[in-house]
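Team,

Forwarding the record for the chain on the shared tracking sheet. I've put the sequence and predicted structure together so nobody has to dig through attachments.
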Amino acid sequence: MKITLYALLLSVVLFGCGGNSEKTFKARAFAAGDDFNVFPKSAKNILTIVKTDSGKMAAADRFIIKSKDTAIIIDDAPNAETKKFKIASFINTQKTAVLVQSDNGKDKMDPFYIIYVNGGKTEVVSLNKPSKGAEDKQYTNGLEELTRSNLLVNNDFFITTINSRVYPIKRQKEDERIQGKFFMYSSDKTTLAFLTANALYQVNTKTGETFNLPLPVSLTNQPETLVGNIQRDYTWVANKNGTSFLKKNADDDRIVDIKEFKH
């Protein structure tokens, strides 16, 4: 009888020790000096993406993020606490940083975070900036994969997974996200061009320099040929700082001022 009671007690203790735990982390705002290219001090200091729900389509899958055996819950009041995520993707090969989007029922408007482990300590960084843009719903596109290694989050953050860098994108107006759609970027992929109502708003992710290029109505009214016309009539030109911006080609038929040829 004693042996049976001992075995039962031992099984309860082992079950309690082996059960999955949870821990809540308070999200903080993104800081310019954040470095997510963290190498773990040991194999234990990595994160794990665990699929909890499988849907008929990949977009219906849901995930939790674990640090060791502990599931991470994000506290980002006034947003609801988040444990399950509809997007979960590592942004470094070391698996110490993962980009997630919460599953709060707001579709593309659900907030994004980066969960990462630094020196054995888990932190949560918010990639959410308040916006009062009149067309926010139209231009809040969630996660856009521009290439396999270049990601765009809600026109506000540019992520390069090759070096795990996150660049905030300077807005035209501080209180509203860029009211436009990503259009193209420079050959070095540092200047992003967004097509707004009547212009190409360009911003360099590394320097923060911007340039707004007005477009004629004759171009914007023909979206099916817009890309081709831009490629034909506009060129990426480096400024004095070496930053490239898209500009209109010189008109060969214009009246030329002799001063243009003087140094």
